[in-house]
Amino acid sequence: MKKIVTTLLVAGALSVTLSAKNWVVNQKGKTFIPSKLTVHVGDTITFDNSDPFAHNAYTDDEANEFDVGMQPTGKETHMKIKSKESFNVECAIHPNMLLEVTVE
Amino acid sequence: MKKSHAIISVLLLVSVNTYASDALAEGKRLYNETCISCHGATGATDTDIKLIVKPRKLKESILSAAQMVKIISEGGHTYGAHSDIMPAFKYVYDKAQIKSIAEYVSQTFNSQRNARVKKHLSEANVQKIDAQKMYKIGKKIFKRNCSLCHGLKGDGKSIYVEQSKANKEFLYPYDLRKTILSEDQIFLMVKFGAHYWGADKEDMPSWKKKYNDTKLRSVAHFVKTKIVGTD
Questions:
Q1: pTM to 2 decimals?
Q2: What local confidence, expressed as pLDDT, does residue B208 receive?
Q3: Nearest 5 degrees, angle CA B97-CA B102-CA B108?
Q4: CATH class of B2-111
Q5: Domains of chain A, with CATH numbers?
Q6: What is the ipTM of this complex?
């Protein structure tokens, strides 16, 4: 019985891991590309700075709160979706950059 | 007696007008002798000069004539510009000459400045909140946004600037500790961005889409009370 439960737990965890997706968002021309994303809890968003200057990405959403700090050209940063609450990501340096993230 | 008073008044008026017009003519002459090479014939920076930081379009400047006198005399660096590309002309011209240049620029290229500033200030929708609350809001936004370029101390030194330099992205945020801008002017600069006020690029962007007037006014209040004059 114990063995079966363990197997089921491992399989469950594996399926969550396998189904979790990584979404790449490019920071280019002072915009997030794409500017809208629909994701699931457990997914990861990778921010990839292609601009010749530094960027930042943050959200003030309490459930998914994160701030990558300073992100130089060519650097990738990652955020994991922790909560089923939609939120916006902004750049603290460039006020017109906006990424709308819908969590399903 | 009355007649002689009237004659004296007319003579004084004529002499004041002549003096003003002479000063303006002198300002034009000096401008065309020196300033024109960077700022252009119409104050629109319509020149071929190649500088790291393109000179400001004087016809869009937020500065009053009195503030221009300070910048022309002491140079941009003294009042927070990163470089000394705008040099101190007090070694070249005397006070009267510098004043005449500032008056010429203000009256000829930038005659709409006062009306423009006044219009934007009267249109601003700033809620009345106490100074302490304003300071708190301004501090939070300054730390979150402004400090990434201007530094936490407002001295224009930040990681962003260093990283951008490495990528040959020329970005030179002002040392806010030295600015001569008033709180009203800082508010308008933050709201509309430096490009709107004559800077070549959008390095200092407009924050009006992100924050409302009350919040932007709070930033200006924080900068003026906490940062300016601390160097």
A1: 0.85
A2: 96
A3: 120
A4: mainly alpha
A5: 21-103 (2.60.40.420)
A6: 0.77
